[in-house]
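F.,

This is the one I mentioned.
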């Protein structure tokens, strides 16, 4: 589910919390296919240069997303501050 809204006093919106990289990349590629199909239907000339441009625009962003979007999320400021506050006090004689 991409977007969810609960009405009432506890209303909230979840955006892209349950979405995987595969869904985002697939949506991007489907959007590119719709643009190409719309261009063909509208009668735009589909030359080799235009095809290269559209393929680059459709394939590079998902590839960059797959390279960058790895591992666990970076810790938040609250998590860092909690980690510093929860460390035990240094023992006497050690600094």
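My design for it:
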């Amino acid at each position: 589910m991409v977007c969810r809204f609960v009405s009432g006093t506890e209303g909230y919106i979840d955006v892209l919390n349950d979405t995987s990289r595969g869904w985002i990349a697939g949506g991007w590629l489907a959007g590119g296919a719709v643009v190409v199909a719309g261009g063909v239907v509208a009668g735009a000339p589909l030359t080799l240069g235009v095809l290269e441009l559209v393929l680059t625009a459709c394939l590079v962003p998902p590839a960059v997303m797959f390279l960058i979007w790895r591992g666990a999320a970076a810790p938040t400021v609250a998590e860092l501050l909690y980690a510093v506050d929860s460390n035990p006090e240094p023992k006497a004689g050690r600094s």
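The mean pLDDT is 76.

Talk soon.
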